[in-house]
Amino acid sequence: MSLPLAKMSLQAFLDWENQQPGRHEFYRGEVFARVGARRVHGIVALNVAAALKTRLQGKPCQAFIESMKVRVADDAVFYPDVFVTCDARDLRTEMVFEHPVLIVEVLSASTQAFDRGAKFAAYRGLGSLREYVLIDSETRGVEVFRRNERGLFELHDQSGAAALMLASVDAGIPMDAVFEGVQAEGIVGAPGPDEPARQP
């Protein structure tokens, strides 16, 4: 089904998207189709989500994977690869989450400019967000942007570290677990179309 050509309000997008067979993201009135991700992208996202699920047992927090929507004010609705929320309002919602403390995006050549730029700028508008993590499955680069006491996000480059340390949920994940199933030398092949591709 084709995407609407005109810009939409947030509520119009939510009403429309909830009736579509595929997933779409929303950014400042424009609608973007979510296209299937590469195999290694899915492996890394699932590894992180599974590890977080285990480490959050017994805590008032829950990890979710990419099929769940995160709303940023009235400007944007995204499907993060992985996110964690500890907010009781989110833990009661069925469709749209608004208070994540941790968001993880797995990069690819086709998505990293958006993930580092406009998407990160939007996510910074979430008052609840404490950490934003970017993982490059090709290079095994891991960047953690952590909100400091002044409310600013500082980069903690954890590339090459033994574990991914997540202060927002008081958890550590061994890097071997993050990249389990991914060849150490990287995967050769054309980047997959897992970015939100705007339709003409």
Automatic annotation (TrEMBL):
Gene3D superfamilies: tt1808, chain A. SUPFAM superfamilies: Restriction endonuclease-like. Residues 11-156 form the Putative restriction endonuclease domain. PANTHER family: GLR1098 PROTEIN, RESTRICTION ENDONUCLEASE DOMAIN-CONTAINING PROTEIN-RELATED. This is Putative restriction endonuclease domain-containing protein. It comes from Metallibacterium scheffleri.
